[in-house]
Amino acid sequence: MGEKKGFFGRLIQGLTKTRDNLKSGIDSIFGGFSEIDDDFYEELEEVLIMADIGVATTDRIITDLKEKVKEQKIKEISLCKELLIDSIKEQMKVGETAYEFENRQSVILLIGVNGVGKTTSVGKLAGQLKSQGKKVILAAADTFRAAAIQQLAEWSGRAGVELIAGQEGGDPAAVVFDAVNAAKARKADVLICDTAGRLHNKKNLMEELRKINRIIDREFPDAHRETLVVLDGTTGQNALAQAKQFGEVTEITGIILTKLDGTAKGGIAIAVQSEMNIPVKYIGIGEKIEDLQKFDADSFVDALFEGAAGGEE
Fold first, then answer.
1. CA-based end-to-end distance of the chain
2. pTM
3. Residue among 256, 90, 262, 111 at smallest CA distance from 194
4. Is residue 87 within 8 Å of 111, Cβ to Cβ?
C-alpha cells in the first residue's frame, strides 16, 4: 500500500495548480451561497469550465447534480459537494479499464503530436514493464522527427530494453515490420512502437497507421493490440480536440495524459474520458520512470477535491 499512498501524495502535489483553482472557486461558491438556486448552479458551472472540464462535460455534471438534488430533496448546500464529486465520477465511467497487455503477448502503438511527451512515455512504460519482469522491445517508428530515434535510444538504454530503429526519414512501417519479427524471434512479451502523429497531415497519418496496422495484423495476428494516444495536459481543451482528431484516424484504446503536474487545466482528464468514452490509462506527473502511473478516475477526482469536501479525510 506504501507506493500507492506515495503516488497519491505525488498526485495531490502534482495537481496543486488545478486543485488550488478548483478549491478556491468551489469554496467561495459553497461559502457564498445559502441556498441551491440557479445562480449557485451557474457559478459552479463556471468554476468547472475554468478547470478545463469543458462545456459539454460540465453540462452533463450539472444536469446530473440537479437531478440528484431534486431526487434526494436536498436543501443543505454542504451535502451538495459530495453529490458533485459523485456526479463527476459518474461522468468518467467508461467500463473496465483493462491492462490486458500486461498478461498477453502484445503490441502497443503510441501516437501523439510532437512535444506532448510521447517518446518519454514510451520509455517510461518500457521501464515499468521491464521491472515487472517482462521482455520488452521498442520500435522507433517516429522516423520523421530528427531527435526521436536518438531520444528513444537513450530511454532504451536507461530502461535496459532492446531498440529496433531504421534510418531517419525512413519508412515507419518498415521499422515496425523489423520490430514485429524481432519480437516474435526473441519471444518478447511486449513490443512498444513510438509512431508519428502528424495531425496537420491527417491523410498521410491515416495511411501510415493503416499500413502499420496491416503489417502487425499479417505478421503477428495473435498479438493483443493497444493504441494509446499521448496528450499534453497543459494544453487543456486542445488536447481534447487532438484526441477527437486521432479518433477519426484510428481506433484508440486508451489515453496517456502527460504534464499534469504543471497545469491548472487538470480537469481535462475528466473531459477527455467523459467525452471520448475512452479510458485515460496512464497519467504523467513528473520526469522519473515511476511518474507515469495507471490512472484511477476515482482517486484522481478525490485528489482534485482533497480538502475541499468539508473536513472529511
1. 17
2. 0.91
3. 111
4. no
